[in-house]
Design a protein that fits this description.
- It is globular, with a radius of gyration of 15 Å.
- Helix 1 crosses helix 2.
- The protein has a single domain, classed as P-loop containing nucleotide triphosphate hydrolases (Rossmann fold).
- Strands 1-7-6-2-5-4-3 form a 7-stranded mixed sheet.
- The two termini are about 15 Å apart.
- It has 4 helices and 7 strands; from the N terminus they run βαβαββαβββα.
- It is α/β, with parallel strands linked by helices.
Length: about 170
C-alpha cells in the first residue's frame, strides 16, 4: 500500500474484471465508488466485474449516452447504479440525476465522477485506473495497467483493500 492508496497491477482486461468481481464482495447497498482514468483505462471493464460479482441483471456496458443505468439484483444483494459523468459539467446536472434517492438500495459507480459526485457520500471508494502508454513500436508489449484504490471515510477505515492486490498477483 502506498501513501496514496493500494496499488493493484492489472496485466490485462481479465485482471481488471477480476478486480471488480473481488471488490464487489466488499460492497454494500449505499456504497459510492468513483472511477477515474483516461479513455480506455478500464473503468467500464472494472464495473462489469462489479456487476458480475454483485449478481445483477443485464449486461453492464458504458452508459455514456444515457448517463445512468440501473441494474437490479438477481438475488437478495444490492443492485448497481452505473453512471457515466463524462458529459456532466456541473453539480446541478449531477443533482438532476437524483442519485441520492436510489443510493440506499444499490451500489453506485460513477465513471468520470471525480470532483463532481463526492458530495453524495462522506464515505466512498475512489479508484484511479492508469493506462501507461508504451512504445510506438507495433511489436512492443504495452506496460500493464494499474488501479489505485483509495478508501475515504469511516465505512472503509477497517477494510483491507491490500488483500485485493494479493489475490490478483
Amino acid at each position: 500500500m502506498s501513501a496514496d492508496g493500494v496499488v493493484v497491477t492489472l496485466p490485462d482486461a481479465a485482471a481488471t474484471t477480476a478486480l471488480g468481481c473481488r471488490l464487489s464482495s466488499l460492497l454494500h447497498a449505499g456504497d459510492l465508488v468513483i472511477l477515474t482514468g483516461g479513455l480506455g483505462a478500464g473503468k467500464t471493464t472494472l464495473t462489469q466485474g462489479l456487476g458480475d460479482g454483485l449478481g445483477v441483471r443485464g449486461r453492464v456496458s458504458s452508459p455514456t449516452f444515457i448517463i445512468a443505468r440501473e441494474h437490479r439484483p438477481l438475488g437478495s444483494g444490492p443492485g448497481l447504479i452505473h453512471v457515466d459523468a463524462y458529459r456532466l459539467t456541473s453539480l446541478a446536472e449531477v443533482d438532476s440525476l437524483d442519485l441520492d434517492s436510489s443510493m440506499d438500495a444499490a451500489v453506485t459507480v460513477v465513471e468520470w465522477g471525480a470532483d463532481l459526485v463526492e458530495q453524495l457520500a462522506q464515505d466512498r471508494l475512489e479508484v484511479v485506473l492508469e493506462r501507461p502508454r508504451g512504445s510506438t513500436d507495433p511489436g512492443a508489449v504495452e506496460p500493464p495497467r494499474r488501479a489505485v484504490l483509495r478508501a475515504v471515510g469511516e465505512r472503509w477505515a477497517q477494510t483491507d483493500l491490500a488483500a485485493l492486490a494479493d489475490v490478483l498477483e
